[in-house]
Amino acid sequence: MADQQELEQAVKEGLMVANGPQATEATTALVEAGVDPKHILEKVMANAMFELGEKWKRGEVFLPEVVASAEVFKQCNAIVEPALLAAGTKEAGIRVIMFTVKGDLHDLGKNMVCAMMRTAGFEVTDLGKDTATQKAVDAIKEIQPHIVGMSALLTTTVGQQQVVIKALKKEGLRDSVHVMVGGAPVTQEWADEIKADGYAPSAPEAVNKAKELTGKV
Amino acid sequence: MTAEVGAGARTRLDGSTYLRPLPWKHAVEVLPPEAIVKLHDNTLAILEQVGVKMGSKAWLERMADSGARVDFAEERVWFPPGLVEEKIKMAPATFELAARDPALDLRIGSGNVYLSTDGCVPDVLDLATGERRKGTKRDLSEITRLADALPQISFHWQPVSATDTPDYVRPLHEIEAQLSSTSKHIQQMTVVDPWNARGMVEMLEVVAGGKEALRARPLMSNFQCCISPLSWEGEPLEAIDVLAQAGIPVGICSMPIACATAPATMAGLMSVMNAEILSGITALQIAYPGHPTWYIPYATSMDLNTGALNLGWGPEELTSEMAGAQIGRHYGIPTITGVFGSGAKTANWQAGVQNGMSAFGKVFSPADMVTAAGTLVFCNAYSMEELVLDAEIWDIAWTFAKGFDFDEETLAFDAIAEVGPANHFLGSQHTRDHMLDFWRSGIFDRDAWEDWEAKGKPDPVDNARRKMNEILNTHEPLPLEDDMLKELSKIVDAYQAERAEEDD
Q: Are β-strands B123-125 and B112-117 bridged in parallel, bridged antiparallel, or unpaired?
């Protein structure tokens, strides 16, 4: 078996260049070799994603590459998580629920935000597109996220963001979550009007806003 | 009266509304013939082997009945190549889009290019403050009235969303606002579900004078858009049913984004676009044979850093739009392509350069209809000054592209002989007959320094604003009868009330 350092390097490289088989095989090998899963997650995987984020900020990598790496991160995480749970070292992360509002089937922007958020270490649950308000409310009750992010592309569906916020209020959930809104017709003025906690014009800005809201730097 | 007056004003002496469509003279083919063949073959392969999603059982059944392979559980259709080629030939090459004033009808496929305002824009740049704010029903009326007076604008989209109206019935408010603000053709792009489509038809029947009158002269058209890649929602298809049955022409639109909802190559992007449009036109012609439709290729790319759309400003986008018009010409199906749409935040140098280049590309690969004038911020904010400026840019491109006549009258031998050497042409009849054919600007700054100073040093945007104010202060669109206005308002109220409870 390759030594631990080589395997860690393979995980990092696999994440950085979105080589799924390389990253997952090396992650599996590390877990099977008994390496502390907390170390794998925090010192190896998260470090790689942080470095990728820095490269993105410098314009050295582009969004499609970040999205692909986030997908590989998800696969590696699925390998590490059972070990974390077994070892009892899984720390509560910052949970985010994302969805595209009811009546809107455009989920590209939302998917980008999910990818960037995962890259930044948030635990993202993606409810998908055309999400009924009740479905969102139920998921929020179950998962108890720190952040709820809603997207809408159409001028005719953007009003649903307000409907969801009203529903959260009615259910007594509004004060327990930070609500973020986004999408092409969404502006800061709209976010203010519907009393959302955060708005961002792009996926990377959404990550910054989420960090700001949750105090995660 | 047809004389035109005033520097660059190009309005008639009696102030009446008219159109200045661009006659086709030139077509620059950006795709070589072999590229068209490869694109077509690839499109047929996509439609046969990958297929498209269709979220309506009734439409899936029609597709199955006509010989397409259908998986009802997956809501997926695979089209045999022969079926696509047979059905797209049924789309008519020419048809009319009627206006409330018959003199303003659009003769699609006649060799004219018709320009429109932009559509479905969420924000406006406020005239008083210059700041961005949400569009309102009143903004929609005012922009439509301004465009009604600009001869370069031949038809309307819904330039801003009437965001001060409830979203579920907003399209009907938009129809109400526009019908009374213009006598030109309106292309209604925000009706994308059968419920609003029924409301639209009811309203149009009031203005047209009944079902048959509307069928004979559809005062509005509509289009429906595929969600890229390769997915048709159920509601737009069901909206087509309502509209087509009332005789309303329906275009088929595709808006793929390279790197995001389409491949990262121009050829792949155009393949997805062509497959989406041909799937829509094939389905429409299966359901409603011979129904007027048009090819709407809006392919763009993604900004690799932010994920935002690259609209109206990139060389690839210009090429794909010119190619889209060429593909439409190849199929003998009328087209719409886009023009303008600068990312600039004000009507500034960037807007002028981007929109100028965009216009000059588009007039040399003409589509039957071209959209859309008056937006900034990547089509996210409407500016009334920009509408006047875009009309002016179009006018320059128009004058350039239409070329010049070389006949006995314009060669002017008699006038030259009459004046002779060492004389001048200033007062001659020939000069007075033709002098207004020269393009003149009311917007460009051509003043001497002293004159410019005396006028308060205006820049072109100030000139555009002055022209805009003149129009807004004086232009009265062809009025609608009071009874009709009341009836339209009643229909909107009834629809709004019907769903008001559900909305609460």
A: unpaired
